[in-house]
């Protein structure tokens, strides 16, 4: 009971997939991005729940994630690797039947040499300049690549979470220029692109963050609840200090609860003095600094000493926490600690 409980609502996850799937026309396949261990929530339960909801294809970042997913998911559904075919990956790619998204001529050579005839996809750069084949390399290699067992061509949008950004239309036009008439399945959109409308959907979409309840999918249902048990409660008298560096001085007598999670569990130290925990509908502010394994919380507003306090709950989602420290919900989710007991419900 001393362990922090991370509740993961798989039916909310499934509803989010269904909601995003409903944004595109009937012929468009909605896949799922489950990299970084299913955005921190546990790739096995997450992917299996999504498959039950209807997802027929998955994307991860690296071959090791693909192999773990293959073991959890069974032999049937395609798994794509955004990082492509990296040095030393041939055995994993072949053994787990992964589809590397080749992103440069060197990867094409490596893949062809190590695994001739093994299916691949191609990742194109349409302007983000992060990962993907440049237009001139693609022009040279396309006839050969399209003739092989090429499962998919894709690219990625840099500014899809800003619907009015001119970069979206620019990348769309570039992706079209590079892929019109190829006859191969195409994918351009993650969560943000799904919400940009049908011009951006092509054959396959591959949302991630929206499935897990994060922005920019404003209609998402929350998927996580983080409930942290109280270890000890004390009265702190007016003028006494709390925690490292004496950064907090009690302005009056107050009741402070010490709870069992800290920055080693992904609760960023930069949240010191900023974040609020919740007991039902009652806000209970953090006082003092975030420690490695502990947080100190002002619970004076509660009648009784609580058993646990919630950091993530219906009153406060990953994006609310992210906004406090100038980051994004993605980083809060993927930082969620390994010490948590993940409970799927
Ligand atoms: C992470 C990622 C996705 C999923 O993006 P979300 O914004 O989480 O929906 C899709 N495509 C690529 C290439 C990615 O790296």
Automatic annotation (TrEMBL):
The active site is at 35 (proton acceptor), 244 (proton acceptor). The modification N6-(pyridoxal phosphate)lysine is found at residue 35. The keyword Magnesium does not apply. Residues 223-345 form the Alanine racemase C-terminal domain. Its cofactor is pyridoxal 5'-phosphate. SUPFAM superfamilies: Alanine racemase C-terminal domain-like, PLP-binding barrel. Keywords: Isomerase, Pyridoxal phosphate. One of its GO terms (molecular function) is alanine racemase activity. Substrate binds at residues 130, 292. It catalyses: L-alanine = D-alanine. Pfam families: Ala_racemase_C, Ala_racemase_N. Pathway: Amino-acid biosynthesis; D-alanine biosynthesis; D-alanine from L-alanine: step 1/1. Its EC number is 5.1.1.1. Gene3D superfamilies: Alanine racemase, Lyase, Ornithine Decarboxylase, Chain A, domain 1. NCBIfam families: alr. Belongs to the alanine racemase family. Catalyzes the interconversion of L-alanine and D-alanine. May also act on other amino acids. PANTHER family: ALANINE RACEMASE (PTHR30511), ALANINE RACEMASE, CATABOLIC-RELATED (PTHR30511:SF0). This is Alanine racemase. It comes from Roseinatronobacter alkalisoli. The gene is alr.
């Amino acid at each position: 009971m001393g362990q922090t409980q991370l509740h993961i609502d798989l039916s909310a996850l499934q509803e989010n997939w269904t909601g995003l799937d409903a944004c595109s026309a009937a012929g468009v396949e909605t896949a799922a991005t489950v990299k970084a261990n299913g955005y921190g929530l546990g790739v096995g339960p997450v992917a299996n729940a999504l498959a039950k909801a209807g997802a027929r294809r998955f994307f991860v970042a690296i071959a090791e994630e693909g192999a773990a997913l293959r073991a959890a998911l069974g032999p049937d559904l395609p798994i794509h690797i955004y990082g492509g075919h990296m040095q030393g990956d041939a055995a994993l790619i072949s053994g787990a039947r992964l589809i590397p998204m080749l992103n440069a001529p060197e990867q094409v050579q490596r893949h062809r040499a190590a695994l001739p005839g093994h299916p691949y996809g191609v990742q194109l750069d349409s302007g983000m300049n992060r990962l993907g084949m440049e237009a001139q390399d693609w022009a040279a290699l396309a006839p050969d690549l399209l003739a092989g067992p090429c499962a998919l061509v894709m690219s990625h949008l840099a500014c899809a979470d800003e619907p009015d950004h001119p970069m979206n239309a620019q990348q769309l036009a570039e992706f079209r220029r590079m892929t019109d008439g190829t006859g191969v399945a195409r994918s351009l959109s993650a969560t943000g692109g799904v919400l940009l409308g049908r011009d951006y959907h092509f054959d396959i979409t591959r949302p991630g963050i929206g499935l897990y309840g994060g922005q920019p999918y404003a209609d998402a249902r929350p998927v996580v609840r983080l409930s942290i048990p109280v270890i000890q409660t004390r009265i702190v008298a007016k003028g006494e200090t709390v925690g490292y560096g004496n950064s907090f001085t009690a302005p009056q007598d107050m009741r402070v609860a010490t709870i069992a999670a800290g920055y080693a569990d992904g609760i960023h130290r930069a949240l010191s003095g900023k974040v609020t925990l919740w007991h039902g509908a009652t806000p209970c502010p953090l006082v003092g600094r975030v420690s490695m394994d502990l947080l100190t919380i002002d619970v004076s507003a509660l009648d009784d000493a609580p058993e646990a306090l919630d950091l993530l709950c219906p009153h406060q989602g990953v994006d609310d926490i992210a906004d406090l420290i100038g980051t994004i919900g993605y980083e809060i989710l993927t930082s969620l600690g390994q010490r948590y007991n993940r409970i799927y419900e």
